[in-house]
Specification:
Blueprint lengths: L1 H31 L9 E3 L12 E2 L5 E5 L2 E2 L9 E7 L3 H8 L7 E3 L5 E3 L3 E4 L9 E5 L9 E11 L3 E2 L5 E6 L2 E2 L2 E3 L5 E4 L4 H4 L18 E3 L7 E11 L2 E5 L9 E9 L6 E6 L10 E5 L5 E12 L7 E3 L1 E7 L1
Parallel strand pairs: 1-11, 2-13, 6-10
Antiparallel strand pairs: 1-4, 3-9, 5-8, 5-10, 7-9, 10-12, 14-24, 15-17, 16-23, 17-22, 18-21, 18-24, 19-20, 19-22
Length: about 325
């Protein structure tokens, strides 16, 4: 029994020693095997990745600000301050247009007068992974609606580390500009020159339903009149930049087809702000917005409907007419 006990004790001791050695070995391996990325220490421009430079902007008189800068790649941070230098390179636009010609877009450089860069140099500070931001301010009111714009900005050099040339150019792109608008129809007094509701009974189809904000009702005439109009009068001159029309819930032949949109300050002298011919509505209760270039304040706005979709005969209907002001 004594001999067996000694063997067991010796075996347990060896097992414990081996266990300790294994733990030390594992700890040693973990300590030496730090996380590492093949791009560790590369300097790049985050805005050059994927579609991060695609801009969604509104038409405004005040600048809209986007930020850009440099970044440190990998699992670690910069060990010392790194200076990053940028440049605007509009010469890249021609090649960009050629490469993406299949999309059917042609890009123009954002005019110098429409943008401002706060700096062309920034610092990626020690202990950080992103640089101090550079501000790109764009005043969209100086751009043309409907035109596609591009501003290529290149990270051209860094004071330390490797510049990742695959992510060194951001193509700041403007494909569309959104317009903020407010509906000010209810601030005006509505009038018209034809209404069948008094004769046939109001079944939600009188002229007043054209501006009631209810798209399930409509203005219906049993006989279209080529001299018909509807108008909205404001208590003081007001700038209207756009208007909408909504088709009725049935019978597309009754839709408005041809019309003029006019403004006046005395109800006698009228200025044509928009003209439409052979306008069609693809769907029932479809709302279409019609923008104008108007910048003049008028007290009265009139819609002269010169033909319905039936060529000027039969019934007429329209669900809603709204006036919009951009801001």
């Amino acid at each position: 029994m004594t001999t067996l006990y000694m063997y067991l004790k010796k075996g347990l001791t060896i097992f414990l020693i081996l266990g300790v050695l294994i733990c030390v070995f594992i700890a040693s391996c973990v300590k030496d095997n730090k996380l590492y990325s093949p791009e560790e220490g590369n300097i790049y421009m985050p805005q050059a990745y994927a579609d991060k430079a695609n801009l969604s902007l509104f038409v405004l008189d005040t600048p809209q600000v986007i930020t850009l800068g440099a970044a440190y790649s990998g699992f670690n941070s910069a060990s010392t301050n790194i200076q990053a230098d940028f440049e605007v390179d509009t010469s890249l636009i021609a090649a960009y247009n050629t490469e993406y010609e299949y999309l059917g877009y042609h890009y123009y450089a954002i005019p110098d007068s429409a943008y401002d860069l706060s700096a062309l140099t920034t610092t990626l500070k020690a202990g950080t992974t992103t640089s101090d931001p550079i501000s790109l301010s764009i005043t969209t009111s100086k751009l043309l609606l409907g035109r596609h714009y591009l501003l290529p900005i290149r990270l051209k050099s860094v004071s330390l580390g490797k510049l990742d040339t695959s992510l060194s150019i951001a193509y700041f792109k403007i494909d569309t500009l959104s317009i903020r608008s407010k509906d000010i129809t209810s601030s005006a007094t509505f009038s018209f020159n034809y209404d069948d509701a008094p004769s046939y009974g109001d079944a939600g189809e009188s002229a007043s339903h054209l501006v009631d904000s209810n798209y399930t009702t409509k203005y219906l005439l049993f006989t279209y009149h080529p001299d018909m109009y509807v108008q909205l009068r404001y208590s003081q001159p007001t700038v209207i930049n756009a208007y909408t029309l909504t088709s009725g819930g049935d019978a597309p032949e009754r839709d408005p087809r041809d019309w003029t949109f006019e403004g006046s300050n005395d109800g006698t002298s009228w200025t044509v702000l928009d003209t439409r011919t052979y306008q069609s509505f693809a769907n029932r209760t479809e709302t279409i917005q019609f923008n104008t270039s108007n910048t003049t304040a008028y007290s009265i706005y009139r819609l002269n409907i010169t033909s319905n979709n039936n060529g000027g005969s039969g019934l007429f209907q329209c669900a809603e007419w709204r006036l919009l002001q951009f801001y």
